[in-house]
Amino acid sequence: MGEDTRWLRAVVVRGLGPNHPDVGRSHANTGRVLLARRELDPALEHFEQGLAIFEATFGRRHRVSARVLDSIGRVHRERGEHQLALDHFAQALDIQRELLGDNHPETAQTLLDIGLLQIATGELDAARASVESAAAGFTAGLGVGHAYESAIADAFAQLCASGHGPACR
Questions:
Q1: pLDDT mean over 127-141
Q2: pTM score
Q3: Phi then psi dihedrals of residue 143, to 5 deg
């Protein structure tokens, strides 16, 4: 990210202190932008800095920490580091299921991320189960017609291409 971003974060840190949750959010949001731009190394660095702040402030078993763990998993998935990705997704999912339940959109997103990882690693039966669980969670939590339906449809299309999706024939 640019010099302006570093300057702005420095102002926020001076005003709030280095361990304020808003500084952690700044790191997590910067990580999301960098991940979208496929700048994976700096994205991971920002996610890890944000996670450290959130864990110091809220503890490991907090939904914000789980959201960042999921984001770290996405970075590792994009890097082809499948086991590291799965480890982070599993940690996030454990926290989300405990705090939010199976029918919360954040839990469903992590299930979808696990499903996409399983598709990438050829674990197609497990992937189908994960994507189906994600679809059920999104529908229960957000209703029909939510924006995530296209991501679910894309995942099912990938499964159909391999012969493991629902109603592929």
A1: 93
A2: 0.87
A3: 85, 175
